[in-house]
Amino acid sequence: MTKAKGYWKEQVDVNPAQMAFMLLPAKQKYAIFSRGTGKSYIAAAEVDENVRLMPRGVTSLTQATIGQALTKTLPSTFKMLSNLNYKPYDYNTHTGDYVVCQKPPPSFLRPHEHILSFDNCITFANGHVLYILTQAGNSRGPSVDFNITDEALTIDKEKFDKESAPTNRGNEFIFGKKSEHPVLKHHGNLFLSSMPYTPQQKWLLEPAKYYEEERGVRLFEVWNKIVNLQMQMIEAKLADDKNRFKDIWNECVRLRRTITPFVSKDKVLFMLGSIFDNIANVGLSYIMNQFKVMDKLSFMIEILNYMVDRIEDCYYKLDERHIYYNATNDRFIRDFAENNEWNLQRMPQDGDCRMDLDCDPSQPIEVAPDWGSAASFLTVQQPRNYDFVTKEVSLFPTQCIINEFYVLRSDEEDTLVNSLADKFCRYYEHHVNKTVVLFRDRYGDVVHANSKKSYNELFIDRMKRNGWKVEQKVHGGMEPPQHDKYLLWMYLLAETDMRFPHVRINGDKCKYTLISMNNTQVITDPATGRFAKNKKSERNKSISPLEATHFGDTVDKLMWTKYGSLVKKSPSFVDARV
Questions:
Q1: For strand 188-193 and strand 146-149, is the pairing parallel, antiparallel, or unpaired?
Q2: Which of 83, 259, 470, 496 gives a 20 to 30 Å CA spacing to 133?
Q3: For the whole model, what pTM was predicted?
Q4: Section 45-69 average pLDDT
């Protein structure tokens, strides 16, 4: 770093994906990048550019909740800004570049837009303001000049269009087309996200259609082909097959050139990126290690940015009514931030149950397992009289699926059962009512040759050892017919029969539950002509257990035990296959 002619010169290293995103001028920007690709730097670079291009302007940071902004987006963004020599203001020395969520000092310029309260603002010395808009609270803010949305797959797009998007207006004579020096990006948007995994999130991928419309490039087909080749390349590396590794690498490079990013005629930039774009910084050894410790599906989605699509004839008729992404305890997180003097680097990243608004600490927690020799799964639910989608008190019970846990044989710390129980207990350590209602897996009652106790008995023992009281529930008979469970889900998700509760799923915490449910196909049993669940994915070793039907089975178990008896008692019940 050197100083000359009154300005600082910084040496900043960027990877190819970051470089392309920064150099391609656009108004509407979409970065769908995997973990480790460098989304944080892009957000920081965008803030830095806005501060420099639009002094006294306003950039909105739109998030689902302020807790999400304080724990996920801002800490990493300002860590990168510190690398660009931005420093928090020091009231003792009267030096620094920004203040967080408080009135700026007199030496700071004020934004063109009149702001009554700075409680949700990060203000820079030249008067530019980063204004935090949240869909859980202040989604209607002042007029802004640009919008940044991180973790974009968690926002309600319809609400964004109605409330947040209209604030992107004003200051046309200062930064817009009517000004002396128009800023291209003025009144634009930046959406940052990992790969969407439910149909409701696919709006983030719609802008990419210009690749095919303008240049005939089928972007996602090529991208997923590259991801599959990268998986083969990693396997070649593990096998020490250098020639195969080299050949696949070169083919990936060739294919990547066919989807070189460009800006559309309408000034839209859409980009995909994965950790291989950042290999110079993280190293191949890091990628190989993640491949070894993660399950296949998690690795492909989280690290390589694989696009998961929903199958046709889905067993579960899920839609936007059933999924929510906003259940963060903002009060707890904001108090934590204030108690730490808004030091964003101290904000907790992983969290625990105290940060979950959809978990009532005074009530028991319902859990249902799916035991296996290679992997075990646990769904966490809690009935409430509140709809987390509409944010309204519900007149009848709402069955909330609030969390998920899984343990694979490859990453177990103890036995699969103990590891799964310990994961649950660590997360819910601060839960006041230490009672779990266990909806037993019938197959978990079988005692195996290498143990004196069944999986269910081992789980109950472990939970009690960790200080939890366990109440047990079980459905009558052995495994209920899939046909009847399918009909139960039709009633549950249709929401037309008052005898059944509504179902709400925390899309942020139950990612693999949703992937499992959206990838479960309903078929017709040729022998009986009745509905059945396609379970082939559980036997296919090339499919990750997380992508198979296991998580769906845990949810089935709990729902059938609680509500299955109502199916054939329902006055509207008609068995269409009899």
A1: parallel
A2: 83
A3: 0.73
A4: 91
